[in-house]
Structure formats: structure tokens, C-alpha cells
Amino acid sequence: MAQMFHMLSYAPYRGLSPLGVTAMIHRLGYEYQWKMLLDELRAQMKMESRDPNGFAERNRWFNNEVASAMAHHYIERLKKHVDNLQERKCKGIPYKRIHGRDIFVSDLDRKVYTPLIIAANLIKYAQNATQLYNAVRKFNAHRIRLSHDTPQSKTWMDAYKGAGAYFTMQNLIRFHGCLITDDKGRRLNKNQSLDFIILKATLYKDEGWRMLAVLKKMLRDNDIDIKKKMAEWRKR
């Protein structure tokens, strides 16, 4: 919740408008999404049998589909990166230097892209949380690091926004006395409010960015000043 509040409110200089969540996520850099995904999948792997409800809530946002989309997005970005690298020649045979390795252009598919495509398929067809975590780890083992400012996967970014907004609202309702005013203007009680955000999460599971709008409305309806709330936490 603190991280989401920071992303919603951060402005680079006093008096300027907040950068916005999308810009703040971009600032985390390309590699952050892979570290975050592995941490999340490790947690899900431990929860799948011990806490099925908690697992389902988290797997809604980060699952095979999201990880698979990230893998294919990475392969596309890697190909663009390699295409832009200087082509050199050894005895007349073209090659490229990729992350400290000299690879003949004719070997790029076999040595670079095919192992990634095979690993991406393991992600797509993983049958449980353990298989998914191990498949992403295997994909990561084949990955070449891209630059910090490489655009992140839109699918991951939507999931990140959706999960952040959902769990922030859940926290606000459970522990901070906030309640939902629904789409018809009715003020809901605590249990109804929790049911409402579950409904929205189910509806927007493939459009996580929409959950940010639900969160912002909830903050307005409950007169929550993000900066004041963060200042209170710092004092504590």
C-alpha cells in the first residue's frame, strides 16, 4: 500500500504534478519486472496448497498468461537489440558480439533465440505454481540483460497496476475503515466493499489499469489525502 501511495503521489519537484503510476513503474527499469515476477511466483508456489484463497487472489494477476506474454515480449525486444548491434566479420563470415559472446549471425537462431522459445513454451504450458516458477527461472537463465530503459511488458504492467490497486483497496477496507461507494452511489458496508473489489478485480483481470481508477475513486469517496497518510506513517 505504501508503494502504491508513493507511485500515485510522487512529483520530482515541489509544486509539480505527480509523475503518474506508469512513469513511476518505468523508472523501476526493465529488469525489475523479472525480479518481481520471480518473487511473486516463489510466494505463490508456497501458498498453492497451504492457502488456496490467497493463492487464487495473487494468481489472478500473475500467472501463465502474464509470464508467457512477458517472455515473448522479451524475445521481440532482444531481436531488436541484436538487429541494432554492429555486424563484424571473421574470415568473411558475419558475427555479432552479444553480451561478451561472439556469435555468427547464422547461429543466432540456434544459440540465442531457439532456447528462449523452448523455455517460453514451458512457461505457457506449466500445470501448477511450482512448474511455472521453475519454467520462469529456466527462461531467466537464458536471458541476456537488456538496458534499464527498455520498455517493460504492457501485460506485466497492467497486472502490476491491477494487483497494486486491488491489495491497496483491500488493506484500506480491512484496516483503515474505508468503504466503497458503488457505481449507483450506494455506500456499502465492509463485507460488501470487499465483495465489490473482488467483482471489479474479476471483471478487470485483463485490464488491471482500470483498477487504478477504482482505487482513486475510493480515495476521493473516503477523503483520503495520500500525502498526509504517508506523513502519518513516517511519524510512526
Describe this structure as you would to a colleague.
With 236 residues, this protein is mainly alpha-helical. The chain folds into two domains: 1-29 and 152-236, no CATH class; 33-151, no CATH class. It is 65% helix and 6% strand. It is built from eleven helices and three strands, in the order H-H-H-H-H-E-E-E-H-H-H-H-H-H. It has helices at 2-9, 21-27, 30-50, 52-59, 64-83, 108-124, 129-142, 154-175, 190-203, 209-221, 226-235, and strands at 88-90, 93-98, 101-104. The protein has a three-stranded antiparallel sheet, with no helix packed on it. A hairpin with a 2-residue loop joins strand 2 (93-98) and strand 3 (101-104). Helix 3 (30-50) packs antiparallel against helix 4 (52-59), helix 3 (30-50) packs antiparallel against helix 7 (129-142) and helix 5 (64-83) runs antiparallel to helix 8. The two termini are 16 Å apart. The mean pLDDT is 94.
